[in-house]
């Protein structure tokens, strides 16, 4: 286990950090360092700080009102060109069909985010 | 037959019609595997039976544990396995149990460490052959479940093939692809273009690969030269 993936989770619910952190700990092929930001402002500061970020997992809705259509373009405007995945407990809303237009790379349901899916995504995007 | 058509329309309305990229299809096949009590899936590209090729090289999409196919290839030849040979003798979906196999049949299941394998041969609209295999440790799968899995697999693969696998040669460039082509012609690198158009570098590389295919060229220099010749860019 020589490679390390630096994943930044942006989610306004700190409980998600624990839940997703547990999922990531079960990934065996890659060592994962999880960073966590509760707001989009914190995340924008984080990516600009120069800290390594192999991939961003972005909760679709951040309180009070932003969804990925605002948050992902904001990350891109700050110069982040790594993969961004949008996580949501409901991918059914029609606007999710346009996720690529907003600079996101993939979308995944929170319930689908298991260790196998994380391994696939890291492999797919070479995010190490 | 009518029930199948209704089923197709129902599933088409939900996930399949909405799937856009490889992660979406990963999600669909992964969910399908779990729904039928398997643990993993793999989509294999089938060439000529006599063509050499290892398991890892034939997998076009899969959720096998990282490194499993590569480890298998170090020890065994996939083309010697009974599953591979059967794929070149018949197109009937099949179920394989570790307990049923003998070593001289090429015991793929034991070699990979699973108890049950379902194999569904599929093909693209142009006849290109693939197979979707599901692996797990369940004891068995009922005939009815295999029928259902087969239909769901054929439907999912058809969408995957048309959306993600088919060569797009001859089709026109999308506005986003034309934009990226223009920036390439201005000498920008993938990371610079990612910054300019506000997407990831991975997305730019993916678009660039599609443009190469569509224009039937082998590198960025030839791409720009052909695009100018074809008056796609000035």
Automatic annotation (TrEMBL), chain A:
Instruction: Please give the superkingdom of this protein's source.
Output: Bacteria
User: Keyword set for this entry?
Assistant: Phosphoprotein
Please tell me whether the keyword Phosphoprotein is annotated for this protein: yes
GO BP annotation list: phosphorelay signal transduction system
Question: Which Pfam family, an example, fits this chain?
Answer: Response_reg
Domain Response regulatory spans what residues? 6-125
In its keyword annotation, does this UniProt entry include Transferase?
A: no
Q: Which residues carry this modification: 4-aspartylphosphate?
A: 59
Q: What is this protein called?
A: Response regulatory domain-containing protein
Q: Which organism was this protein described from?
A: Xaviernesmea oryzae
Organism lineage reads as: Bacteria, Pseudomonadati, Pseudomonadota, Alphaproteobacteria, Hyphomicrobiales
């Amino acid at each position: 286990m020589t490679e390390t993936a630096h994943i930044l989770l942006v989610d306004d619910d700190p409980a998600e950090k624990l839940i997703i952190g547990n999922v990531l700990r079960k990934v065996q092929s890659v060592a994962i360092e999880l960073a966590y930001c509760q707001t989009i402002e914190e995340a924008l500061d984080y990516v600009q700080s120069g800290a390594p970020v192999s991939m961003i997992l972005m909760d679709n809705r951040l309180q009070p009102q932003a969804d990925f259509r605002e948050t992902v373009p904001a990350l891109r405007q700050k110069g982040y060109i790594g993969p961004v995945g949008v996580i949501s407990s409901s991918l059914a809303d029609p606007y999710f069909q346009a996720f690529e237009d907003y600079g996101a790379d993939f979308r995944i349901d929170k319930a689908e985010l298991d260790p196998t899916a994380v391994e696939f995504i890291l492999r797919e995007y070479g995010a190490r | 037959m009518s029930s199948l058509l209704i089923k197709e329309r129902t599933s088409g309305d939900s996930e399949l019609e909405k799937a856009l990229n490889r992660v979406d299809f990963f999600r669909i096949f992964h969910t399908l595997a779990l729904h039928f009590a398997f643990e993993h899936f793999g989509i294999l590209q089938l060439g000529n039976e006599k063509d050499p090729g290892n398991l890892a090289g034939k997998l076009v999409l899969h959720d096998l544990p990282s490194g499993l196919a590569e480890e298998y290839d170090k020890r065994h030849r996939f083309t010697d396995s009974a599953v591979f040979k059967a794929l070149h003798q018949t197109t009937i979906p099949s179920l394989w149990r570790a307990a049923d196999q003998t070593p001289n049949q090429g015991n793929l299941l034991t070699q990979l460490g699973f108890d049950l394998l379902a194999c569904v041969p599929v093909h693209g609209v142009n006849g290109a052959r693939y197979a979707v295999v599901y692996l797990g440790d369940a004891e068995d799968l009922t005939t009815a479940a295999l029928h259902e899995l087969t239909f769901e697999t054929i439907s999912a693969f058809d969408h995957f093939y048309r959306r993600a696998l088919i060569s797009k040669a001859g089709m026109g460039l999308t506005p986003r692809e034309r934009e990226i082509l223009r920036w390439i012609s201005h000498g920008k690198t993938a990371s610079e273009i990612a910054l300019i158009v506000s997407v990831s570098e991975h997305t730019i590389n993916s678009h660039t690969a599609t443009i190469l295919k569509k224009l039937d060229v082998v590198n960025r220099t030839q791409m720009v030269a052909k695009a100018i010749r074809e008056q796609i860019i000035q």
